[in-house]
Write a structure and sequence with these properties.
globular, mainly beta, seven-stranded mixed sheet, four-stranded antiparallel sheet, single chain
Length: about 120
C-alpha cells in the first residue's frame, strides 16, 4: 500500500483548502482512514478519522470547520478545510490502518495559513 497526499498550499486566514490522499494497492474500501497534522516543534496530532462506512470523527479544534470524506471507487480520502486559521499551519498526513493493525502513512503535504 502506498499513500500519496496532495492539495496543500499557502492560504490566508479564513480561506479554504481541500486535501486529497490517493491509495494504491488493495484494501482501501475495507480500512478506516485518518488525517493527522504536525506543526513545527509539536507532536503529530489526530485531525479526523473516517470509518469504512463513512462515519467521521474530528478533533475538537477542527470540528465544524473541517470535513473528512472518502470515495472508495477512487481509493481516495479527502479533507475539506474551511475557515482556516494560522494555528492550522502544519504538515498534514493521511494514514490507513488495516484490520491486522498495520499502519501506512502518506508523505505529507504542507498547509500554511497566513494571518
Amino acid at each position: 500500500v502506498q499513500l500519496q497526499a496532495f492539495g496543500g498550499g499557502l492560504v490566508q486566514a479564513g480561506g479554504y483548502l481541500r486535501l486529497s490522499c490517493a491509495a494504491s494497492g488493495s484494501g482501501f474500501s475495507t480500512n478506516p482512514m485518518a488525517w493527522y497534522r504536525q506543526a513545527p516543534g509539536k507532536q503529530r496530532e489526530l485531525v479526523a478519522t473516517i470509518t469504512t462506512l463513512g462515519n467521521p470523527n474530528y478533533a475538537v479544534s477542527v470540528k465544524g470547520r473541517f470535513t473528512i470524506s472518502r470515495a472508495n471507487d477512487k481509493n481516495t480520502v479527502y479533507l475539506q478545510m474551511n475557515s482556516l486559521k494560522p494555528e492550522d499551519t502544519a504538515v498534514y498526513y493521511c494514514k490507513m490502518t488495516t484490520r491486522l493493525g498495520d499502519m501506512y502513512w502518506g508523505q505529507g503535504t504542507q498547509v500554511t495559513v497566513s494571518s
